[in-house]
Specification:
Spore Coat Polysaccharide Biosynthesis Protein SpsA, Chain A
Length: about 300
Amino acid sequence: MYNQTSAVRKAVVPVAGLGTRFLPATKATPKEMLPVIDKPAIQYVIEEVAAAGIRDVLLITGRNKRAVEDHFDRSYELESALAAQGKQSALDLVRASSELAEIHYVRQGAPRGLGHAVLCAQRHVGDEPFAVLLGDDLIDQRDPLLEHMIKVREEFGGSVLGLMQVDPAAIHLYGAVRAHPVEVGRVPDIVRVTDLVEKPSAGSAPSNLAVIGRYVLSPEIFDVLRRTEPGRNDEIQLTDALREIATQPDRYGPLHGVIFDGRRYDTGNHADYLRSIVQLACEHDEVAADFRPWLRDFVAGLDKSEKGAG
C-alpha cells in the first residue's frame, strides 16, 4: 500500500549524462556546469530544491563530474583569498553554493537511462516520497512549481508530474499524458493522469500536455523500475514505469499532474540554451540595465540588414 502521509524531504537530481549535444564544450566540462549568466545551470536547480524546503539532495553522477561536486563543496583557499582582499560580496557568493543543501552523491555507472538513474537513488531515499528534478529545465524562482507539486502530493497522495501545454506539432519531442480534470471545485491546473506515451507522433498523442523535468514520486516507483524492461537504446525509461503507476492507482496511489504556465528555461540544446540566457539576462539585476539597450540595438541592426538585403 502506498504511503500517503510522509512528507517530501529528499530530492534526486540526475547529472550523469554525457552532454553530447554540447560537444566539444562538454568534453572536459560537465554540461550541468555550463554557465547561465553568473551561475552554472545545476545551481539554479539546487536553489529551486532549497526554496521548496528540501535540504537533502542526492546527485546521480557519472564519470567526469568532479567539477559538479567541487562546485557545491567548500573552497577554503578561494574563500581565504577573497577574505584577505576584502571582497565580501564575492565571498558570500562562493559560500552560498555550499550552503544550499546537504548534498550527497552516488554514481550511476553505465548510462542506462533516466529510470535506472532514479533506481540508483533507492538506498538513499528509502521508503518515503521524493522529488526528481532534471537539469535541462530551469524553473524561474518566481514561479514555484516544485512547491506546488509537493502540496498536491500532500493533498492527494501518490505521485505528481510537472506538465505543460505544447504545440501539438512539437509533442513528439516529449512524453505526453492522457489526463482528466480532478473533482469539481479543485484548482484548474491539477489533472488526474491515466496514461503516458513517450514521444508519440502528433496524430497519436493522447493530449498536448507534455511531461517536463519535475516529478514528485512515491517510493513504490522503485519496485516498478526494477521490473521495467529496457526500451529504446537499451535504457530503462522512467515513462514506462510511470505508465504502470498511472494505470494501477489502487496499487500505487493516484498519479496527478500540475499544468505549469510559468517561466521555464530550457537548456537542452544550443538554441534553447542561448534563448534562456538572453531571457534571464534581460531581467538580471546586474546585467539587464546594460544588456537590454544593447540587445535592442543589435536586433534593430539585424532588421536593417535584412531589409537592405531584401
